Structures are given as structure tokens and as C-alpha cells.
């Protein structure tokens, strides 16, 4: 099947993920009457009865139903790929829409936030709302217990309602890429089929995986195995130095001092013990008078939507129905967007507006650095396609970089250059940092950075002239985006692990983040290595060299300045960008 040049398998898979997440943030839930997983739940309900051989029936159900719906979903995507060959975006749209029905993030976070807020103002309303998350009688729960029930359920459902389906799609698409070559259809169909299979397994467990239902034994066992890794990945993302105090948006919901152990993200609870997703097997006993926030099932499976209800109605097939949030409720997507707006306002010249709330959200969200890097890299890379001689293109590239990002970071380069040229102790170097006069060291540092950027652009022009077709993106775009993401991830890493020597911009950022937040930074930056596909080395080299640059700057700043200041962060961005661009160009042209 012929496809448009840019819709190659990797880009199509990434676009599918983006569509699914965007639809979830925008719409939250499809109507229950047409929700595919609700319809699947109604089929599962027909097996929820007594059988003469319940385990045999349960094995057939656990094996047959997920495979059947997965094959059906994958077939729809494959059919869309061949139905309209001229419209190559159709399978991406179809795959993204189907994947959207398997995930639930916005409603999970919004409902949890609503319950937590209601415990402060209207506990009775909170007891009613918590039924959307926790399948137990909340009549006698105190406000503190209601908050615990909501947060424990949110943490558990984050694994099976978001991480597991997207992880299944990524795994299936990767297998499809390995088998299908340059065809778009196979990776998308395999990825969607894997995500739907995971969701089907979760739904079976949420409906049948109880001790009182022998027919659910196989479903529970299968869900234990499927959710083993997603539960631990979720716990690792939430852990963050033993806390999730600054991990948006759960950090705001839980509170600054909530520990991951209190969330009881669990799997494999077959004998009344919750094995935390981190792998600990000791018993986590609930407080006196409390049951676990959810009916204990066999595993962390189920779906994030399984207990959502509209008003007081019952959900069908273990699936959520769409619910309207109360006015003023703070959904997690709103906090995410505020943090991204703050990041764009601080890291770029894009006119998104600046305010205290956006800055505060950004300061607590180092994960926004690499996200902004993708946008900045994409915008800047367009300048390399100016129809002009190579030196003019290089000049256009340098101008584009500073038109989008501003020249504020260059001030950090100049200050660090002056400080590096000083022969003295830390106090003397700090004094030079505060001096607005530009010295020889700063002048040389600025010249080297701008020259390095321009020569990297010349190398990119050579890459564009010699590179062939076949990748998901023109290689120069992949290298530029990977380098920018790497530079932003390098800066975010210093924000997470560094300590500021004095009050200022550095302390305002480093004081709000912990080393554990680097997990989300690395997770968001890692896909940039694939942007130079089928040659992975250039993108990977750009990322790794950028992070290595950050490590060298951090070591120097700790020894010479006593910590990470705002000037160090700005200089890191500029130096890491230049180093990453050259690394990407060298890896493409020499290897």
C-alpha cells in the first residue's frame, strides 16, 4: 500500500498515541451506549453465573474473549489501511480513536480531585462521588478515609487505565515495525490489537476476578501476569524519592507529604495481602475499621473506568459512563496545561502569557522541559529548508533558534564564561556572576556557542543534501528535535538533582523538584532518539551527549560555584544544544 512520505510506521504510531491522549484530555469518555468496552462488558456479563465446570469455562473466556476483540479491533485498523489507499491518514485516525477508548486519565484524575475537594466542604457528597472510584460502602467513612479511598483507587487505576493500554500499544507496534518493514498498516493494527487485548483482560478481571466467582479464576491469574510490569512502572513513576509530592497532577490531589506506600498500588492480592507495585510482599494492613479502598480483587487489573457511574446509576459491564464534573472542579488536565503554559512562557518567546499560577505549576513540573523541546526543535528545524546557500541557511538557523527561545540563556553563557576565567575561590566567582559587565571569558564563551551553532547548521545542511528517503522524518528534523529535547532534558536533570548555592532563579526551580522527577523527564525525552529512524544512533547520540554535557556542567558548578544557579541552567541549555547537534551530525555522517 502506498503511503505519504511522512506517514511512515514510526511517525504513524506516535501520531496514534498523540490522538488517543488528546481525545482523552478533550472528551474524557465516549457515551456509555456506544462505548466499546461497555459493550464488551455486557458480553462478559453473560458468563457471570454458575457453571458445572466453572474453571474450564473461565479458561475459555479468559483466552477466547480478549483474543476475539483484539483481532476485531486490529482488523478494523487493517481494513482502514486498505480501504482508501489515497487517504493514508485514515488508519492513524481510526487507530487513535480505538486506542482512546482503552485509556482513561482525565476522568480518573478529575473524579479523584472532586472527591478530595468535597471531603473538605461536603462529606456526604464525597461519599456519593467516591462510589465512582471505590466499590465499597462509604456510608461510615470519615473525610480522611474518603480521601484515602479515592487516592488509593486512583493510584491503582492509573496502572490499568492508562499505563497498561499504552504500554500494550507500544509493544504491539514495535513488534509490527520489526515484522512489517515500511508498511504502516501492520504496526498500527498490532499496536491497537495489543492495547485492546490488555483492556479486555483488565475488564474480565474487574467483573469476574473475585473469590466468590470461580469462573473468574483464570481471568484473575491472567491479569496478575499482564499487570505485573505496568503496575511496577506506574509505581516507579509515582515513587519520586519515596514521595509524589511534586508529581503533577497526583501530587496536588494527594498532598505534599503523601508517600507511595500510603497509596497501596497493589497487585497479586490473593490471600488478603497487597503486594506493592514496587515488589514488596509484606502485608499492608488497613487502619482499624477500614477495608481496602476497593473490593479486593485478584490483581491490580480492572479498568480505570470500571466503577464510574452517571449519577446514581449502575455502570454497565464494569465500565464507566461519562459524567459531568461539578463547576470549579480541578481536573488534572487543567494543571498539566497550566504547567505547559508556564514552561512555554519561561523557555520560549511564544506569546502564551505569563502569570504566577503558570510559573508555579512550571516550577513543580520538570517534565515540561522535554515536552517544550519537541515543539521548539520542530519550529527551529523548519529554517533549514530555506532555499538559499548553505551559509545563509546556517544564519537563518541561528536566528530561528534565538527568535523562538530568546537570548536570555546567552546571559548565563556569558556569566559562566567570565566566572570560568577567574582565578579565585567560589566567592570571587559568584561575585563575577553578579557583575553585569561582559569580560573576556564571557565574550569567548558567547562566540564559541554561536559559532558552534552555526557550524552545526552547516553540518545539518550537508545531512539534508546527502540523506535518502525512508525515514519517518527528514533526518535533519530528527536530529534538531532530538538535540533540543536533549538540551531541555539536560537542564531539567540539573533542576531535579542540583542544589542552588544562593537564593535566585536556580533555587526557585531546584527547590521545587526532587531526583525522582528525572524518571518522567527521561521517559518523555527517550522517544526523541527514534526521530532519526531507521538510523537510531544520531538521535540517541544527541540525547546522550546533551545529558553528558549536563553532567560535566553540574560537576564544574558544584566544585567552582557551590551549586546550580540560574546562570548554570541557562548555560547548560545552550552548551547541551550545541554539543547534541554536533553529536547527531557526526553520528549520521560518520557511522
Brief rundown of the structure:
The protein has 591 residues and is mainly α. It has helices spanning 9-27, 36-45, 54-83, 90-100, 106-121, 123-129, 143-180, 185-208, 217-226, 228-239, 250-254, 260-263, 332-347, 356-363, 368-381, 390-405, 408-420, 426-434, 440-466, 475-497, 505-510, 518-525, 536-560, 566-590, and strands at 266-267, 275-276. A two-stranded antiparallel ribbon has the order 1-2.
Features:
globular, mainly alpha, 591 residues, two-stranded antiparallel sheet
Outline the fold blueprint.
Blueprint: H1 9-27, H2 36-45, H3 54-83, H4 90-100, H5 106-121, H6 123-129, H7 143-180, H8 185-208, H9 217-226, H10 228-239, H11 250-254, H12 260-263, E1 266-267, E2 275-276, H13 332-347, H14 356-363, H15 368-381, H16 390-405, H17 408-420, H18 426-434, H19 440-466, H20 475-497, H21 505-510, H22 518-525, H23 536-560, H24 566-590
Antiparallel strand pairs: 1-2
Write out the strand line-up for the largest beta sheet, numbering strands in chain order.
1-2
Distance between the termini: 31 Å
Helix segment tally? 24
Rg is 26 Å
What is the H/E string?
HHHHHHHHHHHHEEHHHHHHHHHHHH
> What is the total tally of β strands?
2
Helical content class? 55-70%
> How is the biggest beta sheet arranged?
2 strands, antiparallel
| Structural class by secondary-structure content | mainly alpha
**Large-scale geometry:** globular
Low-confidence stretches: 1-6, 240-332
Oligomeric nature of the chains: single chain
Q: What's the number of structural domains? A: 3
Mean pLDDT: 76
Strand content: under 5%
